[in-house]
Amino acid sequence: MRKPLVAALFALVIAGTGAAPAVAAPAPTAPAARADTRAAAPTLQAVNFAGTVSLSNCSGSVIRFPNSADTAPALVLSNGHCLETGFPDPGEVIVGQSSTRTFGLLNSAATRVGTLRANKVVYSTMTDTDVTIYQLNTTYAAIRSTYGISALTVQDTHPVAGTAITVASGYWKRLYSCNVDGFAYRLKEGDWTWKDSLRYTSACQTIGGTSGSPVIDNATGKVVAVNNTGNEDGQTCTENNPCEVDANGKVTVREGINYAQETYQIPACFTTANVLNLNASGCVLPKP
To answer: Concatenated DSSP letters for 186-204?
Structure first.
């Protein structure tokens, strides 16, 4: 879960002993292109970087919901643990916090085409899920007019096991392609517990800096989850080593396997104008 901190270290000491293996193997550009081509062959469209963003230490994406108006303030999705003011405590929910955070907007080729700026943190938590949603000081229509880039749509139905997916990291400008392996009833990491987490097949070997990346359904191009953690060392339920806990309390450790938090439950909590309403019918996000 401390992947953003690891990523910042990689960026600063890329020639250092710990950084070299993760960054050097394999080169970021060529593998991304190969993975993209394989995923695209049997599907309707190729997943690319358009609409993803880079943060100072994480990844993210410009998102909209199925009913969001073009004139609504645009939103950026990342992880709760990527919040610039630090990890939210267990049980803590942050709503309406002021922010001036900036994001590098990427086009389909992973070229940075502009800078977007937040004016507030609409919602952030690490309880039950691991998300931060920022509101920008511009609209979807303005972003599309200026940069020719549309927001990624968040799917409002539960993802399905076996689905071909791509984790698109704006920080590293890399694509990771694999499938949904299944779902963890509870995922526990340190003091935090997440519900119904999405588990990747082993092909998605995400690294530091990929935290907050959108997990995209290859067939629809919609966001089904947000990348957030993985078991790095085979330890049990410690930070950077999440464990799965089933409904009967049985603990399973999957060393080297990575996870994301589902996002299908988020659209029900927003109006067409992208106003957060945690009391809306069908909204199950934790409340402050």
So the answer is: EEEETTEEEEEEEEEPTT-
| CA 130 – CA 121 distance, rounded (Å) | 14
- If DSSP codes are grouped into helix, strand and coil, which group holds residue 37? helix
Q: What's the pTM value of the predicted model, to 2 decimals?
A: 0.87
At 235, which amino acid appears?
A: Q
Answer whether residue 29 is part of any domain.
no
Euclidean distance between CA atoms 227 and 230, whole angstroms = 9
In this predicted structure, what is the pLDDT of residue 28? Answer: 36
Give domain status of residue 105, yes or no.
yes
* Structure confidence by residue, pLDDT tens digits, 68-104: 999 999 999 999 999 999 999 999 999 999 999 999 9
247 SS3 class: coil
User: Tell me, what DSSP letter sits at residue 268?
Assistant: G
Residue 237 lies in domain: 3-18+157-262
The three-state secondary structure class of 125 is strand
